[in-house]
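pls read this protein.

:::
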Amino acid sequence: MTSGGALGPERRKALRRRYLSLGLGELVAAGVFVVLAWSVLGPRWSSDARVTLWWALGPLVLVLVQAGTYWLLARSWVRTGTMPTGWARAYRAFRVLDPLLLALGLLMILVRGADGPGPVVLTLGVWVFAVLEYVNYFVVRLAYPPTTWHREVTRWRVPRLVQDLRAADQGGHGRRPVG
């Protein structure tokens, strides 16, 4: 560690690479979900079942795109500054709006139903995954390597995005760099 609590340029480069990987990974995941829903399930499911699926898939894709965008944006301030005010405002809004969209999605899934148990189970599974992604980014960190997941998840760590929002609220004062 260098003076002032800042990490050296090599550590910053490593984190920027990691954030690039995380950001692109979330965006690719969002794209894969859309392509699979459109090309694989779309032709096999009824119109009503497809619409119901999108009530689960829409919020999931939205959270994944927000997450991917966050990681790519965070590359610019990792270890050198704080999240810009405008982006912090946007992510605070997402933190409130996403649960509303998830609740609306669940309501629509339950009201609309789907054709048979398979589509219902898959649709609810997609919705649960959307909730887990939201929790992972805005409530408590859930994503860890499989070999350490059981030990790490019980530590109830604050997600990096929430740490960045808090640092933006404080104007970056007193922020201690965390890996």
The mean pLDDT is 88. The longest helix spans residues 9-41.
